[in-house]
Write a structure and sequence with these properties.
With 273 residues, the chain is an alpha/beta fold. The chain has one domain: Spore Coat Polysaccharide Biosynthesis Protein SpsA, Chain A (Alpha-Beta Complex), CATH 3.90.550.10. The chain contains ten helices and eleven strands. The longest helix is centred in the C-terminal third of the chain and has 14 residues. The model has no long low-confidence stretch (mean pLDDT 91).
Length: 273
């Protein structure tokens, strides 16, 4: 499978090409969105959890604005408290409906509020990964910058922690020979019937890039059976025949799903600030 996400020279070339688009041609805009809802079923109040003196959502925001490709970054939220906190700390935020079933639907509304054009790129950045590396934004955008026919892309990471192979919060991914996703599951996939070779598993990182015209189509689709069964919004696209380009990243980050995860992140931040 192709692995352009690990080719730093390719990423640098795309950044240079993007930044030098001719002024007479309207430049494609790239906007990062961090969806944040008020209530989390697994961890209430998670976006406002303190990490070494800053709320978690701001730790994510501060890393996202370090991307060389994003023209703007916004927190898209249904919470007045989160909105006020982000703006009060110098960030940008947009208020969105409480009715959205997923982060993708939330940023689709935010993109409409900003008036993004159809070919503009929206990047969905997970608000519960405060240690993510901003280079992952360049990696996930690369397929859309390279091929205007690709509507959506995401990242995966080769699992090195055996606990993640069976943990349902680590979403596994299988990919075809051309680098497009075949399925995402909380179950352990693929199943290795013949163990003559060592099993290899890939974990999905929940960062996505979409063209805005596709993002609006996605949000208008009804929630799919598999999407609801697995609790994975990206399956809505696949159930409706859309392909998702996958890039392998060498970057991993801790996803905060529980207070225990939060303590791990706090300990890591304590070593780098």
């Amino acid at each position: 499978m192709d692995n352009p996400g690990n080719d730093i020279k390719a990423i640098d070339g795309l950044i240079a090409a993007y930044m030098s688009q001719p002024v007479e041609v309207e430049k494609v805009k790239a906007v990062g969105f961090i969806p944040a809802r008020e209530q989390s079923t697994r961890f209430p109040g998670k976006p406002l959890a303190d990490i070494c003196g800053r709320p978690m959502i701001m730790r994510v925001y501060e890393r996202a604005v370090g991307s060389l490709l994003l023209d703007n970054v916004y927190v898209a939220t249904d919470s007045g408290e989160i909105f006020d906190m982000v703006c009060g700390l110098g960030g940008q935020a947009l208020m969105t409906s409480r009715e959205h079933p997923s982060g993708t639907d939330r940023i689709a509304e935010a993109a409409v509020q900003l008036g993004l054009d159809g070919m503009d790129i929206a990047v969905n950045i997970q608000g519960d990964q405060p240690l993510f590396d901003s280079v992952m934004i360049e990696e996930v955008m690369q397929p859309l910058l390279s091929d205007p026919a690709i509507p959506m892309s995401t990242l995966i990471y080769k699992i090195v922690n055996d606990d993640e192979i069976t943990h349902p919060n680590a979403v596994k991914t299988v990919v075809d020979k051309d680098g497009f996703a075949m399925y995402f599951s909380r179950a352990t996939i693929p199943f290795f019937r013949d163990l003559k070779s060592a099993p290899v598993y890939y974990k999905h990182h929940g960062i996505y890039a979409y063209r805005n015209d596709f993002l609006q189509k996605f949000s208008a689709l009804p929630r799919g059976f598999l999407e609801q069964a697995e609790g994975l919004e990206q399956l809505r696209a696949m159930e409706n025949g859309f392909r998702i380009k996958v890039v392998i990243t060498e970057k991993d980050s801790i996803e905060v799903d529980t207070p225990v995860d939060l303590e791990r992140v706090r300990a890591a931040y304590g070593k780098i600030i």
